[in-house]
């Protein structure tokens, strides 16, 4: 923290005003316009992520997400703001505890899912193997609890993958392993819709035709669903694809938080920057369907108690479950290391290429938390150098004057003008 002495209110305000970054004139260069657009999109994502995390904290007060990216680690005394030396939009806090909950926390979900996406990419690109994308689902009704549908789905999947029948299918089709991902959505018409995506890794020398894979696995799945007391449509209960475009899209979009932007008419739209562990963050395909984080956003934005109750139901049922489950021995076969969610959530702490931009003391950090402006700090950091950010953080310090001269510009106005400058900086 900068130790500038605030002797007078007016002097302090002038100090903040004079530390603003210089604006770039309109039309100065095309790259500046592109950088501005990139900054705005990244800023929207950061703001939305912290907004949703605050809502999750409100819904799940006794879960680890309640202190995630808020609590300073015991052996640390300050919060560091880190910035990548080459990618200026890549910024994060350091020395904060994380919850590492891929289901509850929008921020940790984003980080962990990105780490898992890289693992999936290695699996799909492994030489000597073919990949098939399979989706398992079953019938679900409006008034059926998530627990009931999820338990039947998981039970049917376990029965499908165990026993002599599946072992014979593995040998016949050349299956060397699989990667399972679990997700759910909620539909206003049909209730909870949990489903499983699975990448089947096949030996390229023995791979059967897609028609044969579809036939034998579909029949086995439908039979196992029936044995657990459920029902799966022959047409919609099982899907399989070996189209490389579908598989590449699935992996590339995995774990990406959607950007909530607007179209030319000003209507809000969702981008397509995610496809699997995005499970928790994406908007369902149907206009009447919502993912858990979409439900969370409905509660955060409008106070919708039904959306809150549904999110809490989801959080309870998915807690402790694995996001990705690799079949035994597959990671060793493909040379993928075993990394826990806790390590994946903190991977950015040890990433190369970052430098310290500013440090925030405990009292100042508490004020930032009280105002709910963690995203604002990172958005400013993405556009400022070290000195500019340190000056900017001063307005959060408890010693910063609150009772300013009546003739002086109000502090809040100074703050808002400063953020406008940040947003317009190229």
Task: Please characterize this protein's 3D structure.
This protein has 426 residues and is an alpha+beta fold. The protein has 15 helices and eleven strands. It has helices at residues 9-18, 30-59, 106-125, 146-161, 164-173, 210-227, 244-252, 292-302, 305-318, 330-334, 341-345, 362-371, 374-381, 386-393, 411-424; strands at residues 78-84, 91-94, 129-136, 175-187, 191-203, 238-241, 260-262, 268-270, 289-290, 324-326, 354-361. The strands form three sheets. Strands 3, 4, 5, 6, 9 and 10 form a six-stranded antiparallel sheet that branches. The radius of gyration is 25 Å and the shape is globular. The two termini are 26 Å apart.
Helix residue percentage: 40-55%
Distance between the termini: 26 Å
Number of helices: 15
Strand content: 15-25%
Q: SSE order in H/E notation?
A: HHEEHEHHEEHEHEEEHHEHHEHHHH
Class of secondary structure makeup: alpha+beta
The biggest beta sheet is recorded as: 6 strands, antiparallel
């Amino acid at each position: 923290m900068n130790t500038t002495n605030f002797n007078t209110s007016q002097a302090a305000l002038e100090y903040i005003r004079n530390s603003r970054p210089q604006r770039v004139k309109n039309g100065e260069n095309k790259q500046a316009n592109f950088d501005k657009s990139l900054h705005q999109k990244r800023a929207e994502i950061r703001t939305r992520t912290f907004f949703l995390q605050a809502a999750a904290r409100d819904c799940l007060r006794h879960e680890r997400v309640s202190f995630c990216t808020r609590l300073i680690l015991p052996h640390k005394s300050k919060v560091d703001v880190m910035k990548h030396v080459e990618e200026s939009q890549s910024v994060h806090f350091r020395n904060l505890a994380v919850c590492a909950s891929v289901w509850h926390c929008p921020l940790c979900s984003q980080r962990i899912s990105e780490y898992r996406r890289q693992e999936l990419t290695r699996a799909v690109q492994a030489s000597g193997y073919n990949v098939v994308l399979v989706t398992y689902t079953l019938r679900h009704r409006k008034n059926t609890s998530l627990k009931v549908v999820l338990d039947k789905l998981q039970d049917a999947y376990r029965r499908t993958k165990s026993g002599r029948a599946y072992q014979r299918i593995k040998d016949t089709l050349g299956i060397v392993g699989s990667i399972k991902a679990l997700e759910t959505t909620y539909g206003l018409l049909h209730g909870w819709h949990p489903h499983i995506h699975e990448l089947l890794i096949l030996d390229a020398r023995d791979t059967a035709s897609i028609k044969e894979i579809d036939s034998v696995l579909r029949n086995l799945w439908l039979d196992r669903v029936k044995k657990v007391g459920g029902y799966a449509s022959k047409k919609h209960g099982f899907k399989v694809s070996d189209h490389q475009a579908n598989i590449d899209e699935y992996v590339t979009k995995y774990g990406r938080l959607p950007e909530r932007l607007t179209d030319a008419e000003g209507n809000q739209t969702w981008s397509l920057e995610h496809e699997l562990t995005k499970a928790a963050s994406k908007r369902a395909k149907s206009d009447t369907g919502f993912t858990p984080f979409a439900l969370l956003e409905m509660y955060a934005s409008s106070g919708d108690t039904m959306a809150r109750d549904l999110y809490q139901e989801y959080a309870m049922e998915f807690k402790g479950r694995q996001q990705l489950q690799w079949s035994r021995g597959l990671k060793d076969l493909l040379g993928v290391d075993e990394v826990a969610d806790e390590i994946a959530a903190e991977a950015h702490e040890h990433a190369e290429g970052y430098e310290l931009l500013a440090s925030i003391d405990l009292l100042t950090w508490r004020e930032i938390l009280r105002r709910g402006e963690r995203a604002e700090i990172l958005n400013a950091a993405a556009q400022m150098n070290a000195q500019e950010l340190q000056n900017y953080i001063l307005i959060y310090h408890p010693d910063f004057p609150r009772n300013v001269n009546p003739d002086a510009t109000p502090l809040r106005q100074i703050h808002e003008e400063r953020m406008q400058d940040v947003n317009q900086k190229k």
